[in-house]
Amino acid sequence: DGFVTEAMIRGARAVLIVEDNGYGLRDQVQLATLGEDYLRRPTLPVLAITPAAAEQLLAASGSSLAAVEDTIKAQAGQTPWQLAP
Question: Is the model more confident about 37 or about 69?
């Protein structure tokens, strides 16, 4: 919940998880943390998408998955929120 709340504060409209393996992440239950409050209505959609879907979304803004990964690697040790404009 902390990650989603922080994303929302920073203006996110959704959280997208890029999943390489179509058989990996099946639903948000796998992301659950013991002891958290899961009865609240979600405030932000959290979706798992394929790399191909991510490429299509990023291409619309002139970017690519490789460019995002390069930015993440360049910011190693820094807060990941710096990735978002």
Answer: 69
> Residue 81: which pLDDT band, with cuts at 50, 70 and 90?
low
What is the rounded distance in angstroms from the CA atom of residue 43 to the CA atom of residue 66? 29
CA angle centred on 16, ends 36 and 80, rounded to 5°: 80
Residue 66 three-state SS: helix
Q: How far apart are the first and last CA of the chain?
A: 22
As for how many domains the chain has, the answer is 1
At CA 57, angle to CA 18 and CA 42, rounded to 5?
60
In what helix (H) or strand (E) does residue 6 lie, and over which residues does it extend?
Answer: helix 2-9
Query: Domain range for residue 12?
Result: 2-83
